[in-house]
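Now for one specimen:
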Amino acid sequence: MTAFKNGNPIGVGVIGASLGGTWGGVAHLPALLALPQFRATAVSTTRQTSAEATAERFSIPNAFTDPYELAMHPDVDLVTIAVKVPDHDKLIRAALQAGKHVFSEFPLGRTTEEASGLLQAAEAKGVRHFTGLQARANPAFHYVKDLIADGYVGDVLAVHCSYAMPVFPTRSKQINQSRAYLLEEANGANQLTITAGHLLDGITYMFGSFSEISAILETQIKQVKVAETGEVVQATAPDHVVVNGKLAGGTIVSTQIRNTHRGGLSIEINGTEGDLLLQSEENYMFQMDSFVVKGAHADGKTIEWLPVPPQYNLLPAGIQAGPVFNVAGLYTQIYNDLLDSTYNAPDFRTAVDVHKLLDHVRLAAQTGTRLTL
């Protein structure tokens, strides 16, 4: 679009951004407000009152309940889909029908087949498409990737991730009604697709693709009470995920994602010449946390803190760590791609690759075998 070349901000319409703690309201709209190259021009929710409340809170000129009306608005260049996964397909197709660029949260669809269909539809329309694998915008990961390329650890022998989440219903044995859909595997949004999906994408982004994979998927908390109603629902989605394997270059990967009473998230990288350690500061979720980087060379006795150099943070001053930070970084990548016709931000093709990898994880767990990819 030539308007981007003229320095005009890109108009974004966000579908799914009420003020009740939704991801659109918590992360996307604050990120857009902090970036001068974007302008939030429209918002859509399921109720007009909530859409208008969000529009007033964030000074957005247009509020809709009809997502297609949002997508058709002339001030919307890019449509962001920030709703539950089961609704992605119809809303993305509404944006594509309007001929607009699309940014959808991940998982892209409930299944690989659904995600692949959306990729084909977007390619057929000739629009740009992006997906919310925002850990790729984390400055700490770019820094570590450069350290590895520069030989800090030598050849990478092993990557180990210990991922303990305190926010799932292991501790409370209950869940809010708005999140109960996460317990049903058919909805495509759970510990495997969201938590492991983002993590495995980050691992392949930093270290390359898997050549072999094995897995364990378990649903350990099978009955969960809905907080508002007291109804007990049967969980079918996995809540404990173990993925092990080997990367194309020979690196051995081991990851364990489980639910705990106290959170923790660390990624250890072992090489022929030293080690690197990424430790989360928030212990919440891989795709939104900030990380401390530490390293040790061959003597193995001294581990040093490696502050992320300021040149890795391309965001305006004032954007703090938390849900907004990596989302704002991803929007910055999207802006540069739209401006310069580059392809650096993760897109629907990236999402489909992750969906296919998750299919391999499921098959490995179901068969109890180590698969060659």
